[in-house]
Design brief:
Number of domains: 1
Family: Belongs to the G-protein coupled receptor 1 family.
Membrane topology: Multi-pass membrane protein
Strand content: under 5%
Structural class: mainly alpha
Keywords: Cell membrane, Disulfide bond, G-protein coupled receptor, Glycoprotein, Membrane, Receptor, Transducer, Transmembrane, Transmembrane helix
CATH class: Mainly Alpha
Helix content: 55-70%
Largest sheet: none
Protein name: G-protein coupled receptors family 1 profile domain-containing protein
InterPro entries: GPCR_Rhodpsn, GPCR_Rhodpsn_7TM, TAAR, TAAR_fam
CATH architecture: Up-down Bundle
């Protein structure tokens, strides 16, 4: 939460988070049209995030044809994105528009916990993407043994480990306060009334960014690169330029649908990197320059990262024909028709 407005205006025009106090933070001041536009943008982001991911969850739970290990992983990823829309975005929207914290010290501590809950969801999402990458690697690079090695039970176990590791890391930092070590003087010097600030020292910023984004994303990019190199080799072997088909060579066979799924999920990874990488990069640079990064820039990068949670359902709808059919059934209320759960979602 940033409570200092750097816009050059007269002191008489300043609005304070805590009126009558010289130690108060200065409230952000936007025109009516700007505030209205921000409200619309934030509400739109929340609605798309919540409704889109809810539809993904309902689709996978309801339609039996979607009950497979890959979609179990996608369902859990959609749950993490849904929680971002329900819990993280609303509070962040209010503080972004006003630049003040109006809810007291007790709720500030809870809000700080939500910051780490946000970190928890980010790490969980990263682990989910790693699990999905491993699943696609096995499906394409080892197709003969995929159904035996990657079952729904195995997928659920992978998810449990992902959520557990994310919780241990994020809430371990919260309760140990290791991220605040060495920042006591800085926090005391820049804290004002009406602020709810969360700081992390350079060591934890670098460590967290490496663990949360840089190393995992490098690993996943390498996995998908290997997948597409192998898929291209399969295509070359059977003399097709644009389609994945049967290959009876040493790799067994690769289904066209598996290749499409890998491409779609690699797009999910690419969008995740595009949305989150700038924020993590700035989070490393910020403590090195005395936490002087522009408040506006931080807010823009934070919401760019949040928009990632709204993007995934759109990607599924555009690139997954089966999900597109599910979304149509839900929107047209055909999901309430008898035996809708067993309907054929295959697209000829």
């Amino acid at each position: 939460v940033v409570c200092i407005n750097n816009t050059a205006i007269n002191m008489q025009q300043l609005l304070y988070c805590v009126p009558g106090s010289n130690a108060s933070c200065v409230m952000e001041q936007f025109s009516f049209l700007t505030s209205f536009a921000l409200y619309l943008l934030f509400v739109f982001a929340m609605l798309v995030t919540i409704l889109g991911n809810a539809v993904v969850i309902v689709s996978i739970c309801h339609f039996k044809q979607l009950h497979n290990p890959t979609n179990v992983l996608i369902l859990s990823l959609a749950l993490a994105d849904l929680l971002v829309g329900v819990i993280v975005m609303p509070i962040r929207a209010i503080t972004a528009i006003y630049g003040c914290w109006f809810y007291g010290d007790t709720f500030c501590q809870i809000h700080a916990s939500f910051d780490f809950f946000e970190l928890f969801l980010i790490i969980a999402s990263i682990f989910h993407l790693i699990c999905i990458a491993v699943d696609r690697h096995q499906a394409i690079c080892n197709p003969l043994h995929y159904s035996r090695k990657i079952t729904i039970t195995v997928a659920v176990m992978m998810l449990c480990v992902s959520w557990a590791l994310a919780a241990v890391y994020s809430f371990g930092i919260l309760y140990s306060k290791a991220n605040e070590a060495g920042l006591e003087d800085l926090m005391a010097s820049i804290t004002c009334l009406g602020a709810c600030l969360v700081y992390s020292n350079p060591v934890w910023r670098i460590l967290g960014s490496t663990i949360c984004i840089f190393f995992p994303c490098t690993v996943m990019v390498c996995i998908y690169t290997h997948i597409f190199i192998l898929a291209k080799q399969h295509v070359r072997k059977i003399g097709e330029k644009n389609n994945c088909s049967h290959d009876r060579g040493k790799g067994g066979f690769v289904k066209k649908s598996e290749c499409k799924a890998a491409k779609t999920l690699s797009i999910v990874l690419g969008v995740f990197i595009f949305c989150w990488m700038p924020l993590f990069a700035v989070s490393i640079i910020d403590p090195l320059i005395g936490y002087s990064t522009s408040a506006f820039l931080l807010e823009v990068l934070t919401w760019l990262a949040y928009f990632n949670s709204a993007c995934n359902p759109i990607i599924y709808a555009l690139f997954y024909p089966s999900f597109k059919k599910c979304f149509h059934c839900i929107i047209t209320l055909k999901i309430f028709s008898p035996n809708s759960s067993t309907m054929n979602l295959s697209v000829k």
